[in-house]
Design goal:
The structure is a single chain. The chain is α+β, with helices and mostly antiparallel strands. Helix content is about 25%, strand content about 40%. It has an eight-stranded antiparallel β-sheet. The longest helix has 18 residues. The N and C termini lie far apart (about 40 Å).
Length: about 200
């Protein structure tokens, strides 16, 4: 009886290792866990925020927003990433982060086009799936941009990489009083087909 119990336990343990890849990534690169559930419902406030609330009430409102309470610091992440930072390696298979910094050239655009606004991308963090030193697939994990001519909102994108290979991304436009255009994306690292699969 004991043998069959231990054999069953051993098979269960082996099955989880055979069919599920584990991606052990340093916490400084995994992103913010709140992105996994995508809850930003507590972010945003009414127009009377500055006039009708006390400092203590404003602090309570700010603490209700997961964007303000996350321990993961995306600003520090931009400083951590070099040109190509390997965050995971398994033989010839690698996950590599890189950053981009771009500023649009406003001199080329004399007349403002409302349908194609100028956006200055301050920073962008990309994740590449690399096999035998060749990039097989790439996605944007985090970004920070704003419209420099009409600075009504801040466009941000945040991410979280789960140990199971699931990647959660949330992008949004943050106006000073509320959040709009919330978009959630879920990817899975497909090690066998060397791709990020959108779920």
């Amino acid at each position: 009886m004991k043998i069959s119990y231990y054999l069953g336990l051993l098979l269960l343990t082996c099955t989880s290792f055979c069919y599920g890849d584990n991606y052990i990534i340093d916490e400084k690169y995994t992103g913010a866990p709140f992105v996994k559930n995508g809850d930003v419902s507590g972010c945003g406030f009414s127009y009377d925020y500055w006039q009708d609330l006390t400092n203590e009430e404003r602090k309570l409102v700010a603490e209700g927003c997961s964007l303000n309470t996350t321990k993961f610091n995306f600003n520090k992440l931009y400083d951590l990433i070099d040109k190509n930072t390997v965050i995971y390696r398994d033989g010839d298979f690698e996950l590599i982060m890189d950053r981009k910094h771009q500023e649009s050239d406003k001199k080329d655009k004399i007349i403002y086009d409302y349908n194609n606004p100028i956006e200055d991308i301050v920073y962008e963090i990309n994740l590449s799936l690399v096999y035998k030193k060749q990039i097989k697939s790439s996605i944007t994990l985090a970004s920070y941009s704003y419209n420099s001519d009409r600075a009504f909102y801040l466009k941000s994108q945040y991410y979280y990489i789960d140990a199971t290979g699931d990647i959660y991304i949330i992008s949004l436009k943050d106006y000073s009083t509320h959040i709009e255009d919330i978009n959630r994306i879920h990817y899975k690292i497909d090690k066998e087909n060397l791709n990020f699969v959108k779920l």
